[in-house]
Write a structure and sequence with these properties.
Layout (H helix, E strand, L loop, with lengths): L2 H27 L15 E7 L4 H17 L4 E8 L5 H10 L6 E4 L4 H7 L6 H6 L10 H4 L3 E2 L2 E2 L2 E13 H6 L5 H7 L4 H15 L2 E5 L11 H4 L19 H15 L18 E7 L12 E5 L10 E9 L6 H11 L2 H7 L13 H7 L5 H9 L6 E2 L6 H12 L9 H17 L1
Parallel strand pairs: 1-2, 1-3, 7-8, 10-11
Antiparallel strand pairs: 3-10, 4-5, 6-8, 6-9, 6-10
Keywords: Signal, Transport
Subcellular location: Cell envelope
Family: Belongs to the bacterial solute-binding protein 1 family.
Length: about 425
């Protein structure tokens, strides 16, 4: 069986499981009623929170915060466990747990699935707990960061990570190829996608490695290409989620540019090629600031904002939320822990990897204090300015089904002689019924 068919079968199942799981989770414990002050249980409880990071440094930080909560609230909790699920399988595994009646108490949630989770009734309203927790400073949260996770007056997840996408560059490889430094191009106003493509192609030819990698795309997670097409002011569907816009001229131009960068210019890895920038396999990568933890001293590197496209510069953020499942065994205690985990003091610690939605912490000096691998100037340029007027990766209330359908249709694009416009036309034909659903 081909990889194409295996992938389609697996991901189509994901869409079905997500819808079923959320429905079952809502029926089992979903409610519009907010959770309140946790009642002291008959005996301390164990909490479980699913995450997709496997970074030991990050997990150690989470555990240290959780252990402090346990120490301060021994009558409520005996332990908090963080369960790592691989990134590529995360939503499938999480929703399988929900469908099987084994809901975690808390979970990270992708921004792309936010509308579906928020509208499902599977998550509890966190606003009363966060607003009512002494010292939480709810008003410090940036209102625009909450929008994706709100429904009416309710807030159904906390946006723990508001991480702008940026370009990490291997300055050793770029210098060895005699190419201009992207930092200088940023200063001179010449940092464009065309410039990045040309540098990537020339550097790859010189090094024998890869040029520019859109991390976590791998010709499967197509939504990560928002970091590219946003420079053309393109989008897969209209703002209200009802109309397909893959066939708009801006998207056709953006996807043509990407296709040519891969198959004509050899500036990007071809399908089936794995290249890890952080292992020295590529000259540049588009990814989020939290990936800086993977850097070591094996090569010299820098970080710059996303390039400008024909429509100018567009900031893109990846936003992940953490919510409490109503079908979990202890939603009130879980919500209380979440308020502790994300209070101002702990948000400052978490800012080392996950830019917080707190206005007081969104400045270069504060972020640099928590992130010694990056300077205040780098963080100011990439993170603080990167959240200004930013767009998120695609999200939709029917995203699970849309994601798999788009991925299947775009498979036809990843060959050298693809007709880009025809593939995008077919994509619109396939997803329009799902947008109207």
């Amino acid at each position: 069986m081909s990889v194409h068919h295996i992938r389609n079968r697996r991901t189509a199942g994901t869409a079905a499981v997500l819808g079923t799981a959320l429905a079952l989770s809502a029926c089992a414990g979903g409610t519009d009623a907010p959770v309140g002050e946790p009642e002291t249980p008959s005996e301390p409880v164990d909490l479980r929170m699913t995450v997709w990071t496997a970074d030991e440094t990050q997990l150690d930080l989470f555990q240290s915060i959780a252990d402090a909560y346990v120490a301060e609230n021994p009558e409520l909790v005996s332990s908090v466990k963080f369960e790592t699920i691989p990134f590529e399988d995360y939503t499938t595994a999480l929703t399988t747990q929900l469908a099987g009646g084994n809901a975690p108490d808390l979970a990270w949630i992708f921004e792309s699935n936010a509308p579906e989770f928020v509208s499902s009734g599977a998550l509890v309203d966190l606003r009363p707990v966060l607003e009512g927790t002494e010292g939480y400073a709810f008003d410090d949260l940036v209102p625009s960061a909450l929008t994706l996770w709100e429904d009416g007056d309710g807030l159904y997840a906390y946006p723990f990570s508001n991480s702008p996408f940026a370009m990490f560059v291997n300055t050793d490889q770029i210098e060895a190829a005699g190419q201009p430094d992207p930092v200088d191009l940023v200063a001179d106003g010449g940092w464009t996608f065309d410039a990045a493509r040309d540098i990537a192609a020339a550097t790859a030819e010189k090094s024998g490695k890869q040029g520019l990698v859109v991390r976590d795309f791998d010709y499967q997670s197509w939504e990560n290409l928002a970091t590219v097409w946003s420079g053309w002011k393109a989008a897969p569907w209209s703002a209200d989620g009802t109309q397909c816009t893959f066939t708009d001229p801006a998207m056709v131009d953006a996807m043509t540019w990407f296709h040519d960068a891969v198959f004509t210019d050899a500036a990007m890895p071809a399908p089936g090629t794995t290249a890890d920038f952080f292992a020295g396999d590529a000259a540049m990568t588009i990814t989020q600031i939290s990936r800086a933890s993977a850097l070591d001293d094996s090569f010299h590197w820098d970080i710059v904002p996303l390039p400008e496209g024909p429509a100018g510069k567009q900031n893109v953020v990846g936003q992940a939320g953490v919510g409490v499942f109503a079908a979990g065994e202890h939603p009130d205690v879980a919500a209380d822990f979440l308020a502790y985990f994300t209070n101002a003091e702990n948000a400052e610690q978490l800012a080392a990897y996950f830019p917080p939605p707190r206005q007081s912490l969104l400045n270069g000096d504060s972020l640099a204090a928590a992130n010694p691998k990056l300077t205040a100037d780098q963080l100011e340029a990439v993170v603080v300015q990167g959240v200004e007027d930013a767009v998120t990766k695609p999200a939709h209330k029917n995203f699970a089904k849309l994601s798999e359908t788009v991925r299947a249709e775009l498979d036809a694009l990843w060959v050298e002689d693809a007709d880009v416009e025809a593939v995008l036309t077919d994509t619109c034909a396939a997803i329009t019924p799902l947008l109207e659903d």
